[in-house]
Amino acid sequence: MIIPVFNEASVVAGVVEEVLQTFPHVVCVDDGSSDHSVPEILKTDAHLVRHPVNLGQGAALQTGLAYALRRPGAQFFVTFDSDGQHRVEDARAMLDVARDGDADVVLGSRFLDHARDVPALKRLVLRTVMAFSVAGRRLKLTDAHNGLRVFTRAPAQDLRITMNGMAHASEIVAYLARRRWKVVEVPVSIRYTDYSRAKGQSLLNGVNILFDLSMRQRGA
């Protein structure tokens, strides 16, 4: 499991310890945190990789995937947020889908069964980004910006995340739309705590994602 971390000292150890009860192989990528995230991670049995400066979640995920791909025998790669929003049981259910051979990539969706649990502003941001995502519509996705994902080895090896900021999620969807991998969405539930709400994406961030993508497409 790959967990990108940036300034999550108050929660990251608890998240990692919970994950380790089900997933024994965890790598945390500290993305230049300025708080005590690193000492908190070191209290756990997770592997730790560090960026000396903050490069963005996309870069952290790419670093984590590269590290995990070098582990002998690794066949499945789960991405999981460090702020406590994701549930381990959802990750396990998604992994079961991949292990059964029903998908090459499994994406979590908060809009299949749990849309009413999503805060109104968050729902607006995600729906707006989704409306502008040609790749998302091509794949018939309902949630293009969920950080809970499972990759089998072949697409994990092929994936190259180059957008370091939050627009990396749209870049991943665009990559999947260009390939022949079988992509499946699985319903997941997000824990919207006061902490995660305070760190969540604002409407402005959604606009920034769209801007990043439009500039990237112009430069392609």
TrEMBL record:
CDD domains: DPM_DPG-synthase_like. Residues 2-115 form the Glycosyltransferase 2-like domain. InterPro entries: Glyco_trans_2-like, Glycosyltransferase_2, Nucleotide-diphossugar_trans. Belongs to the glycosyltransferase 2 family. PANTHER family: RFBJ PROTEIN, UNDECAPRENYL-PHOSPHATE 4-DEOXY-4-FORMAMIDO-L-ARABINOSE TRANSFERASE-RELATED. This is Glycosyltransferase family 2 protein.
